[in-house]
Amino acid sequence: MDGGNQIIAETPAALNVEKRDLAKHPAVQILLPIAFALAVLGLWEFLVDFYQVPKVILPSPLDIYARTVSAWPFLVQHAVPTGTEAAIGFLLATVLGIGLAVLLSYSKWAYAALYPNVIFFQLIPKIALAPLFIVWLGIGSSSRLAFSMFIAFFPVVIATLTGLNSTPPDMLRLCKALTARSWQVFLSVRFPYALPHIFSGLKIAVTFAIIGVIVGEFITAQAGLGYLILFASSQAETALILASIGMLCVVGLVLYGVVAGLEKLILRKYGH
Fold this sequence. Notes:
Blueprint: H1 2-23, H2 26-51, H3 61-70, H4 72-106, H5 108-123, H6 126-137, H7 141-164, H8 169-177, H9 182-219, H10 225-234, H11 238-269
């Protein structure tokens, strides 16, 4: 009887473990978000049809899909400059952000002089600075790239600096005992330990880079998804606006997926 009671007592815990394991299954992690999204779209379609909402206010998902299909070549044409400029701005922010974080981590003087100013510039609303980039750099792609880099820069710096400063002190003492040079400690210990933090910052930065490009396209561009959204709004084509936003989500998912894929490859190489 005691054995039976023990089995019965352990059964709920075992079931909870199985449920947690099931939630981590790759198929569940893929299918569950898709099912939820389809449910939301179905509810959206039903409510729009039931209340007969005008298309100019909120078109149904089927109307948006039809407009996306009809304007697909146009959407792809405008997605290319947006995605290209966002990727370049993100790469510039990554290089400069990691470089500055390394400098701040290794130099107390640089940290004391620069870090408060980095925080200060982060507190300034970025949208308010966009016209200044247009004045300084003109209406070409250079102003959009600079603004994209500027808005994506801060997460990379903070995440990298946090990662570099999170190295276990025991590892640093061991390296010192082994008379390792500073660059050896950086490449073999500090940088590998910082990688999870760095990629956390990069995932945030890649979305900020897209936002920076879109803001620039709102102001100056004659091409790109931001320009297309403004054009569609001037024509009261709500379906085209939402189709452009959907294409923007696709661009963002592609760039985010590239960062996530690189994270898995690099962390696997370093044994995380």
